[in-house]
């Protein structure tokens, strides 16, 4: 079954302990419902470094990227259905679903 990369994008991430705990609990509840389709829950990202033709530089690439997950589904539509009620969307974030490229 194909695997899909899910990336998390938002400029409004919780930073206080209470909001972070609520976000984590909501994710755990969603992940439990998703079951074995959540192949790798991923993680939020912390320190970042970009690498370009100008060399390495600390900081973000263009556009905020906040984390990732890997899910398994029959096709892109089935993967999107698994993400429809993801709590990150409810907090105003956007999930980008990436289908594996044919090689």
Care to describe what's here?
- 29% of the residues lie in helices and 32% in strands.
- Strands 2-5-1-6 form a four-stranded antiparallel β-sheet, covered by helices on one side.
- The radius of gyration is 15 Å and the shape is globular.
- The mean pLDDT is 82.
User: How many domain units?
Assistant: 1
Task: Give the CATH architecture.
Answer: 2-Layer Sandwich
The N- and C-terminal alpha carbons lie at a distance of 16 Å
Relevant CATH superfamily? Dimeric alpha+beta barrel
Count of individual helical segments:
3
Element-by-element helix/strand order = EHEEEEHHE
The main pleated sheet reads as: 4 strands, antiparallel
**Shape category:** globular
- What fraction of the residues are assigned to beta strands by DSSP? 25-35%
Number of E-type strands: 6
Fraction of residues in H or I helices: 25-40%
Salient structural properties:
four-stranded antiparallel sheet; 103 residues; globular; 32% strand; alpha+beta; two-stranded antiparallel ribbon; 3 helices
């Amino acid at each position: 079954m194909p695997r899909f990369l899910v990336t998390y994008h938002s400029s409004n991430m919780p930073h206080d302990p209470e909001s972070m705990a609520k976000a984590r609990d909501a994710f755990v509840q969603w992940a439990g419902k998703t079951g074995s389709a959540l192949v790798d829950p991923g993680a939020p990202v912390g320190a970042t470094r970009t690498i370009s033709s100008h060399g390495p530089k600390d900081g973000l690439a263009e556009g905020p990227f906040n984390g990732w997950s890997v899910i398994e589904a029959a096709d892109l539509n089935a993967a999107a259905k698994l993400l429809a009620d993801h709590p990150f969307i409810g907090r105003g974030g956007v999930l980008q679903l990436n289908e594996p490229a044919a090689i």
